[in-house]
């Protein structure tokens, strides 16, 4: 066996962050070494990660025993037994079956297989896989001191394989990963994943006390014992739109509770941002959003997906953020001594104080993920193309992209712009990589619309165009978190009756509330976000704030109109949903009927030439709009219609 | 050394007198009475002739004015760099401790070359002049109760043994506020007179017993503008009567632990109340702070031991009308006095339970591979309610600390045996020397029962992987508690500050609390610029049905710090917050004093504080007992 205790990375990757205020780490390409040395050697090399407090972690089987014998589980078993009248032994047996179905069987040999196979696959698919090594060093330190929870963004199936691959590469403890049960359906692959550290949880088990108890105790036991870093996706599922999703709190609650109960000194949350230059599932997602059901995970499906191996997916950037100490976050927010008067092994609904803390934490972490997402030039180009669906001249696109780059950088976007290359080159190579989405014909750049075989109905043509638009939107969405707040301010200035700061704020606050399902807006941050937006627009010279007013400057027009255009599809989408609900929806509309109904409503509008916005066809937007309306009181519907 | 001779002379005389009293007692025992009463004599002359206690009025004659304990006993590093313990009073006295220096230097990153010596004598100029209340002094003179306003007497009673107090004494810092005078009542009636006069002339009284407080309870409130009188109870130190039928003794509250035990032993009895401070702490102090003794498993804590309390308050004397062993007469008024920390009045006389001296005493110890195993064992022992008189679990750090106090081994054979033991435990049994912990045990009772009991406990220990490790290890464990305060003085001679603090916590939280508090201390030290890793060590010192008492030692080398005491206080504050967040109590037996006042509201609720306030308001509306502890 080749024994290389420390992974030695290839040549340094250039830093591309130009904002001196924001210190971000540099990247190293981990594929470089893979291209120059044996994958087999790499897969078989000595793997000796540092451990939590230097303790040897127990075996996966021991872990199950600890869980099954815990006071926590016994308490719930007895409770369930009393409620159901079944003997405790039988419930205990059930618990054991649940655990068996759930538990991982992390095995280094399987990980080595993956390491080998993934090396081959990554080299074919991607140009670079870049990782910030300083982040890896911080993680290594954190793993030794405290239980660590890895919280990656979730854009692709690739994410968790990639995470484990990177940790293996850097000789770090392999994480155990909370995965959806649907993976387990994939016969062989499910078991492979299980042996590489995945544990499987049912998608919904709301009322099942026993399931919840086994699950939460399993996770907590791994956390308390420092068995391995725990990894899960705060967003709960892959984001089909490339926007971050509203975080789910269940697992976060579970991993934070041991700190509140004093079972561990601290828990470190590590946000990880995984950015793909091209997402493997790109057009799949668009189809899914348009109502074509997602293919069931199956091994044969995976094999069919092999054809994707022949394409170029650009590079991946993985940024390990600063570990966030739950102890420091909770300082002054949660009084731990409120846990003193209740036995710790009895499950209990978290207190309000705790709930809002966890919710707040979840949002902060997702924002940290967003902040460290690496953006490619194409993301800017896609934003511009979507505002010019009829296409625009290459020179104009290039010019505007350069302008937008400056804007993005001044808003601290984490932009990967090749500094040495001339702009034209950057634009053309982006277009080349995404030739499936945009094409240059003559001097004009426009969206590609898939050419279907045979004759097409108007609906089919519309559907094909929508796939392109939604695919393109998934790139624009990646930059939204950078521009969101100033863009909302721009829209608010546009809609507000006057330039009075108050009025503008009211508008802003309305938009903020309305969009809080679509974008990551931390609860209670309205004022802060407004101030941030003002600051940014003033800083870039688009806006002035004399006394109590907010007014556009002479040079502010391009910025503000770009921002208005950026949010236009969302505003239109919400408007269509409102119109549908006011004009068409009947009493007793079920949620199941809602999506197809609103979709066909929108299709009619588009075909009639009354609507040019394709994004409203996205089920994601439809759901978010409905949620916003449900959240608000009824008058909101009318207010929304009236305002827009 | 003259004072030394003096004190041993005095002791000899006291001894003679005691044997006479003992003979007296026995005579009564033969006659069928069983009750021996003594009249409260009023010693108007206040002559030392009448004083049979260990503590003289001029405490500084036998005790350090700026450190712990007797002047003749202290640790020092001799010219060869070896540690030795001076004096003749203790088992360690006169011995050299060859491994202490290494342990000290390695643990703290300290060096015997870096000395931080104390100011040798009290500089009178740092003591503010007394603010006397002339009318009070006049009236007091008329009673004949002895008093003093000499600087040394006043300074001695201006502090307890908190780190910041001792540190300030050693540095020769200027005092902000000290008592303006000291009075030495000789009996209950003297106290009644003093309290009456204090009320009449609006003088602030601060009761002073053994002076071993570690909660800033004896500190004079700087904002106090009235004359502050320290009421030193040390001369009220007699056993007034002893009732063998009911096994109780009526004792003056100023008596200190060692005297009480010695006197009772002469009649064949003991109280069994042995707090670690028992050499110096007083009965009244125990009552006022809710003290706990190491043998509480057999004898109970102070609240279990007292049958009757007599205390003098500004409202008058509070006491019960009978000595019934238990009563249902509303809330127990004893519990207003127990833990009142000198805020309501002075405890003058206490009737407490006594027991015949146990026939047989045996130390023991058990080594466990890990702290977790040791705690699990103690929990099981508590569950089976078979705890020996004392059972304590020292963590690994304290185990090594204890070992550093091993005196020089004289014979090669003992050395060999020691080596063999170590080999057995670490090599054959595979205990990691950096993980193993030791439980120390003390059994008491008749011989057969002790041996039986011992077996039962060792059997339980065995199920948790514990190995019996001999009597010697056990005894040394208890020794550590008596000399630890002396060791702190040694540390302070070499730039190391140290303190202990305690809490009580439910069983299921013991491990987590220990772990988290230690980690918090280490982290806080780091954040506050302490340049060397601090020593954090803990032991489980008491077991109860539902929980345990945990005792922490915390020390660090303060070289490079501008204000070590302030840093120390910040870290201790953080440690206490951590304790409270982890389900620990504000205090198990040290009390609240002024050091932990800020947490009282959270600890006992607003209503609770209100109740205590209303009692204070009724009993002492003029705040005569103005030490401002507790509330």
From TrEMBL, chain A:
Residue ranges of every copy of the Phospholipid/glycerol acyltransferase domain listed in the record: 148-277
Location of this chain's protein in the cell: Membrane
GO terms, biological process: ether lipid biosynthetic process; fatty acid metabolic process; phospholipid biosynthetic process; triglyceride biosynthetic process
GO cellular component terms listed in the entry, alphabetical order: mitochondrial membrane; peroxisomal membrane
GO function terms (MF aspect): glycerol-3-phosphate O-acyltransferase activity; glycerone-phosphate O-acyltransferase activity
Pathway listed: Phospholipid metabolism
Entry keyword set: Acyltransferase, Membrane, Transferase
Domain of life assignment: Eukaryota
Coiled coil residues, start to end: none
Main location: membrane
Similarity comment: family membership: Belongs to the GPAT/DAPAT family.
Name this polypeptide is given: Phospholipid/glycerol acyltransferase domain-containing protein
Name of encoding gene: GNPAT
UniProtKB/TrEMBL annotation, chain B:
Record-annotated site: Important for enzyme activity: 392
GO molecular function: alkylglycerone-phosphate synthase activity; FAD binding
The entry's keywords: Acetylation, FAD, Flavoprotein, Lipid biosynthesis, Lipid metabolism, Membrane, Peroxisome, Phosphoprotein, Transferase, Transit peptide
Cofactor (UniProt): FAD
Subcellular location: Peroxisome membrane
InterPro entries reported in the protein's UniProt record: Alkyl-DHAP_Synthase (IPR025650), FAD-bd_oxidored_4_C (IPR004113), FAD-bd_PCMH (IPR016166), FAD-bd_PCMH-like_sf (IPR036318), FAD-bd_PCMH_sub1 (IPR016167), FAD-bd_PCMH_sub2 (IPR016169), FAD-linked_Oxase-like_C (IPR016164), Oxid_FAD_bind_N (IPR006094)
GO CC terms, sorted: peroxisomal membrane
Chain ranges of the FAD-binding PCMH-type domain: 175-357
Active-site residue numbers: 551
Name of the top EC class for this enzyme: transferase
GO biological process, one term: ether lipid biosynthetic process
EC number of the protein: 2.5.1.26
Signal peptide (from-to): none
Residues annotated for substrate binding in this entry: 488
Annotated pathway: Lipid metabolism; Glycerolipid metabolism; ether lipid biosynthesis
Reaction it catalyzes: hexadecan-1-ol + 1-hexadecanoylglycerone 3-phosphate = 1-O-hexadecylglycerone 3-phosphate + hexadecanoate + H(+); 1-hexadecanoylglycerone 3-phosphate + a long-chain fatty acid = a 1-acylglycerone 3-phosphate + hexadecanoate; a long chain fatty alcohol + a 1-acylglycerone 3-phosphate = a 1-O-alkylglycerone 3-phosphate + a long-chain fatty acid + H(+)
Lipid biosynthesis in keyword set: yes
Assembly notes: Homodimer.
Described purpose of this protein according to its UniProt entry: Catalyzes the exchange of the acyl chain in acyl-dihydroxyacetonephosphate (acyl-DHAP) for a long chain fatty alcohol, yielding the first ether linked intermediate, i.e. alkyl-dihydroxyacetonephosphate (alkyl-DHAP), in the pathway of ether lipid biosynthesis.
Protein name per the record: Alkylglycerone-phosphate synthase
Organism: Oncorhynchus tshawytscha (Chinook salmon)
Gene name per UniProt: AGPS
């Amino acid at each position: 066996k080749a024994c290389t205790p420390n992974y030695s990375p290839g040549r340094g990757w250039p830093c591309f962050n130009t904002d001196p205020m924001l210190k971000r780490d540099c990247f190293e390409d981990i594929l470089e070494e893979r291209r120059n040395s044996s994958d087999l050697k790499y897969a078989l090399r000595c793997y000796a990660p540092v451990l939590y407090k230097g303790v040897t972690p127990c075996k996966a089987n021991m872990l199950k025993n600890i869980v099954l014998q815990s006071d926590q589980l016994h308490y719930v078993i007895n409770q369930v037994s009393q409620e159901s009248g079944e003997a405790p032994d039988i419930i205990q047996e059930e618990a054991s079956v649940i655990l068996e179905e759930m538990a991982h069987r992390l095995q280094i040999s399987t990980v080595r297989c993956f390491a080998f196979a993934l090396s081959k696959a990554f080299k074919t698919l991607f140009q670079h896989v870049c990782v910030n090594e300083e982040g890896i060093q911080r993680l290594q330190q954190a793993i030794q001191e405290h239980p660590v929870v890895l919280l990656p963004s979730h854009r692709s199936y690739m994410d968790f394989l990639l995470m484990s691959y990177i940790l293996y590469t850097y000789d770090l403890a392999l994480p155990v990963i909370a995965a959806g049960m649907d993976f387990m359906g994939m016969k062989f692959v499910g078991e492979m994943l299980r042996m590489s550290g995945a544990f499987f949880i049912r998608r919904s088990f709301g009322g099942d006390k026993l399931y919840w108890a086994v699950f939460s105790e399993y996770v907590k036991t791994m956390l308390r014992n420092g068995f391995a870093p725990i990894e899960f996706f705060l967003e709960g599922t892959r984001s089909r739109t490339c926007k971050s999703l509203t975080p789910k709190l269940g697992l976060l609650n579970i991993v934070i509770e041991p700190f509140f109960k004093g079972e561990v000194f601290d828990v470190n949350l590590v946000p990880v941002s995984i950015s793909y230059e091209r997402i493997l599932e790109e057009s799949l997602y668009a189809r899914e959003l348009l109502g074509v059901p997602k293919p069931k995970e199956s091994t044969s499906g995976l094999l069919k997906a092999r054809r994707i191996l022949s394409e170029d997916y650009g590079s991946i950037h993985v940024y390990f953020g600063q570990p966030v100490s739950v102890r420091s976050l909770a300082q002054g927010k949660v009084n731990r001594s409120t846990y003193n008067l209740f036995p710790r092994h009895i499950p209990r609904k978290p207190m309000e104080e705790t709930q809002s803390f966890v919710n707040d934490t979840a949002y902060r972490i997702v924002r940290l993920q967003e902040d460290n997402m690496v953006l490619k030039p194409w993301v800017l180009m896609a934003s511009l193309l979507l505002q010019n669906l009829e296409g625009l001249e290459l020179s104009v696109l290039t010019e505007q992209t350069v302008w937008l780059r400056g804007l993005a950088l001044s808003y601290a976007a984490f932009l990967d712009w090749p500094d040495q290359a001339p702009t034209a080159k950057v634009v053309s190579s982006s277009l080349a990589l995404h030739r499936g989405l945009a094409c240059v014909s003559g001097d004009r750049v426009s969206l590609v619309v898939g050419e279907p075989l045979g004759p097409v109905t108007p609906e089919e043509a519309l559907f094909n165009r929508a796939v392109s638009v939604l695919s393109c939107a998934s790139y624009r969405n990646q930059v939204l978190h950078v521009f969101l707040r100033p863009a909302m301010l721009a829209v608010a200035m546009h809609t507000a009756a006057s330039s009075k700061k108050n009025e503008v704020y009211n508008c802003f606050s309305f938009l903020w509330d309305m969009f809080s399902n679509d974008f990551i807006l931390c609860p209670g941050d309205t004022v802060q976000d407004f101030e941030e937006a003002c600051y940014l627009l003033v800083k870039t010279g688009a806006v002035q704030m004399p006394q109590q007013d907010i007014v556009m400057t002479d040079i502010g027009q391009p910025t503000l109109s770009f921002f208005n255009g950026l949010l236009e599809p969302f505003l239109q989408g919400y408007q269509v949903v409102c119109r549908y609900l006011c004009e068409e929806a009947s009493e007793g509309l079920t949620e199941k009927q809602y999506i197809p109904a609103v979709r066909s409503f929108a299709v009619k509008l588009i075909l009639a030439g009354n609507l040019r916005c394709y994004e409203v066809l996205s089920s994601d937007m439809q759901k978010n709009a409905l949620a916003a309306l449900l959240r608000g009181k009824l008058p909101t519907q009318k207010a929304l219609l009236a305002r827009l | 050394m003259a004072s030394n001779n003096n004190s041993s002379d005095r002791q000899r005389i006291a001894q003679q007198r005691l044997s006479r009293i003992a003979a007296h007692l026995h005579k009564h025992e033969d006659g069928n009475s069983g009750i021996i009463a003594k009249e409260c004599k009023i010693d108007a002359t206040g002559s030392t002739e009448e004083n049979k206690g260990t503590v003289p009025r001029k405490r500084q004659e036998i005790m350090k004015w700026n450190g712990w304990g007797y002047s003749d006993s202290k640790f020092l590093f001799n010219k060869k760099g070896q540690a030795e313990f001076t004096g003749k009073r203790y088992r360690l006295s006169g011995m050299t401790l060859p491994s202490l220096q290494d342990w000290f230097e390695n643990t703290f990153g300290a060096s015997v070359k870096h000395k931080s010596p104390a100011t040798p004598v009290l500089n009178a100029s740092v003591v503010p002049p007394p603010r006397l209340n002339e009318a009070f002094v006049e009236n007091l003179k008329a009673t004949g109760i002895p008093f003093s306003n000499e600087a040394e007497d006043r300074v001695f009673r201006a502090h307890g043994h908190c780190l910041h107090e001792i540190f300030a004494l050693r540095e020769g810092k200027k005092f902000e506020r000290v008592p303006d005078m000291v009075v030495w009542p000789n009996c209950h009636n003297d106290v009644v007179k003093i309290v009456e006069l204090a009320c009449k002339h609006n003088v602030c009284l601060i009761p002073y017993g053994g002076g071993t407080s570690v909660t800033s309870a004896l500190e004079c409130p700087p904002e106090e503008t009235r004359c502050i009188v320290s009421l030193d109870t040390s001369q009220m130190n007699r056993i007034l009567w002893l009732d063998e039928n009911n096994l109780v003794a009526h004792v003056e509250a100023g008596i200190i632990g060692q005297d009480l035990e010695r006197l009772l032993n002469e009649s064949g009895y003991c109280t069994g109340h042995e707090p670690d401070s028992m050499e110096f702490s007083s009965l009244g102090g125990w009552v006022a702070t809710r003290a706990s003794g190491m043998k509480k498993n057999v004898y109970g804590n102070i609240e279990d031991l007292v049958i009757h309390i007599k205390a003098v308050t500004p409202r008058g004397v509070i006491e019960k009308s009978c000595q019934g062993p238990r009563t249902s007469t509303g809330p127990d008024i004893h519990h207003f006095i127990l833990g009142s920390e000198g805020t309501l009045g002075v405890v003058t006389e206490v009737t407490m339970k006594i027991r015949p001296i146990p026939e047989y005493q045996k130390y023991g110890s058990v080594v466990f591979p890990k702290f977790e195993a040791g705690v699990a064992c103690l929990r099981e022992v508590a569950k089976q309610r078979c705890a020996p008189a004392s059972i304590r679990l020292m963590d690994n750090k304290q185990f090594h600390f204890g070992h550093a106090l091993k005196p020089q081994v004289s014979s090669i054979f003992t050395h060999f045996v020691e080596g063999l033991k170590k080999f057995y435990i670490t090599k054959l049994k595979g205990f990691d020397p950096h993980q193993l912990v030791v439980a120390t045990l003390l059994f008491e009772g008749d011989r057969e029962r002790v041996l039986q009991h011992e077996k039962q406990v060792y059997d339980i220990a065995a199920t948790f992987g514990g190995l019996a490790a001999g009597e010697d290890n056990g005894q040394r464990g208890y020794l550590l508690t008596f000399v630890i305060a002396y060791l702190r003085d040694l540390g302070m001679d070499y730039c190391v500050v140290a303190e202990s603090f305690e809490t009580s916590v439910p069983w299921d939280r013991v491990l987590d609390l220990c772990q988290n508090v230690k980690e918090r201390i280490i982290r806080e030290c780091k954040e506050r610029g302490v340049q060397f890793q601090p020593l954090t060590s803990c032991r489980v010192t008491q077991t109860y049905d539902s929980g345990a008492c945990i005792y922490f030692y915390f020390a660090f080398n303060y070289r490079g710090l501008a204000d070590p005491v302030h840093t120390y206080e910040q870290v201790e504050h953080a440690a206490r917050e951590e304790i409270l967040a982890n389900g620990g109590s504000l205090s198990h037996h040290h009390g609240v004093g002024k050091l932990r006042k800020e947490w009282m509201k959270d600890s006992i609720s607003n209503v609770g504080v209100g109740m205590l306030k209303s009692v204070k308001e009724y009993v002492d509306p003029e705040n005569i007992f103005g030490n401002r502890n507790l509330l």
